[in-house]
Amino acid sequence: MSQAVFTHDTEVCLVAAAEILNAPAPERLEEIWDYMDRWDWSGERPSEIAELAQVHRVLTRLHAIWLAPLHEAVAKTNKLLRDAAALPQLVHHEPIGWHVHAAAEDSGFATRLAVDTAMAIVDAIRAGAFERLQVCAANDCDDVYVDLSKNRSRKYCDATCGAKAHTAAYRARKARPAN
Q1: I need a surface site. Which of 9, 54, 95, 146 has the fewest CB within 10 A?
Q2: Is the predicted pLDDT of residue 1 greater than 50, yes or no?
Q3: Whole-angstrom Cα distance, residue 2 to residue 20?
Q4: DSSP letter at 41?
Q5: What is the DSSP letter of 132?
Q6: Residues 6+ apart with CB under 8 A from 46
Q7: How far apart are CA 30 and CA 28, in angstroms?
Q8: Pairwise CA distance, residues 84 & 122, whole Å
Q9: Domain ranges in the chain?
Q10: What is the CATH number of domain 8-175?
């Protein structure tokens, strides 16, 4: 039996964060609502267009944490939690079961996104697995992903980037003259 890299709620939060970080910045509230539905976010839906700007600021901060070296990621994560006045508490709701929320249920989506993702990053750092938050190795892609492979060997954000890189390497090998 293989051991999970992260707790279920941490894994879900990190993978969901990678999805929203890789997507074009949401321009309509409906895009946020769709994201919330896909990832079973609890709490109130954003209802004012001004909340999009808050989400954009949070996404910029989360992306900076994802790309930072560990010591900078720690400082940026702690600042994000302080700025949101995070107050961790144990909650239970489906489909996740028992897990930690660190923002009040009535907090805006931007705050909940910031705090929940920061808490998942805290778990990754505590587990000695921060390096699993990666950037795609493809030359023409800067998407982020969570390396959940057993041997920490994932290099690409998805199968498309991996296939393109392998095809390019194959073609380069074939183009070399035989010795």
Answers
A1: 95
A2: no
A3: 28
A4: -
A5: G
A6: 29, 32, 33, 52, 55, 108, 109, 110
A7: 5
A8: 15
A9: 8-175
A10: 1.10.3300.10
